[in-house]
Amino acid sequence: MSSKVPPIILNNGVEMPQLGFGVWQVPDDEAEQAVGTALEAGYRSIDTAAIYGNEEGTGRAIAASGLPREDIFVTTKLWNSDQGYDSTLRAFDASLEKLGLDHLDLYLIHWPLPSRGTYIDTYKALEKLHADGRVRAIGVSNFLPEHLRRLVSETSVVPAVNQIELHPHLQQHASRELHAEQGIATEAWSPLGQGKGLLEVPAIVAIAQKHDRTPAQVVLRWHVQLGNVVIPKSVTPSRIKENIEVFDFSLDDEDLAAISALNEDRRLGPDPATFDMS
Ligand code: NAD
């Protein structure tokens, strides 16, 4: 594990770096360079997904890094069109092959698709992959509290992680509370609010000036102090480096309160209750 990023301990004892590198919207031919830059900067966790189309580039960067496999935590996600027991097993094999790996650290169901009613069977396939030792931890993404409650009552392995949209404008109190009760780690996607607007909010800019940090670092530090796992994305080397330098300063109670006051329950992405893209 990188010395820069402390781990959190998942509910099955597996360690996951609290900060990782997200690669949504990074084209496959740019992923190798971006992930390579992140690994050089000290990131040891990479978040990709089958639908991102960059598992191959991500895998090439991991291989080229020369780092021991056990030092890198790799997450990918099962796409919607592959939900269902047998299709999930096949999709997992395809993702592993693209990544060039023999096992995965974390496999997530990308979206719940509640109107299809397939996430229980899909999750049972994840349980099998976990039991077979092919993935060290399993979890979900974009699950609302009602989906999580049903999943936990109808399956055996409590998800290690729920990866959800979370940033100062969408603080997800109900989900975070349920995760804490169930021992599920909260992983924040779009932790920087996709860089739009949020990083110019006066309260955040003022806190950044006070600590001689950047707004992005302040927002990432807020997540870290809340206990969230974060996976900021950038393809700009200076920002990739900047985004990991958040473990050598602290926000005080006043800063945390000022950021918590920014909640607007405003999503940038789709609503998981209705999102159903194949
Ligand atoms: P993000 O909040 O990480 O924002 C990324 C954008 O912010 C960059 O493209 C850039 O424009 C800007 N940025 C990054 N660093 C900056 C800096 N230091 N200073 C100024 N601007 C900066 O958004 P994201 O990519 O949507 O989310 C992060 C990761 O979360 C994704 O790459 C992906 O891995 C994951 N994700 C998952 C889901 C899901 O459904 N599970 C959905 C979206 C994203």
From TrEMBL:
The residues the record assigns to binding substrate are 110
Tell me which UniProt keywords the record has, alphabetically: NADP, Oxidoreductase
This chain belongs to the protein called Oxidoreductase
**Family in the record:** Belongs to the aldo/keto reductase family.
What is the originating organism of this protein?
Streptomyces lucensis JCM 4490
InterPro entries for the chain: AKR, Aldo/ket_reductase_CS, NAD(P)_OxRdtase_dom_sf, NADP_OxRdtase_dom
UniProt domain NADP-dependent oxidoreductase: residue ranges: 19-264
Q: Which GO terms describe its molecular function?
A: oxidoreductase activity, acting on the CH-OH group of donors, NAD or NADP as acceptor
Q: Name one Pfam family in it.
A: Aldo_ket_red
Site Lowers pKa of active site Tyr: list residues: 77
Q: Which residues form the active site?
A: 52 (proton donor)
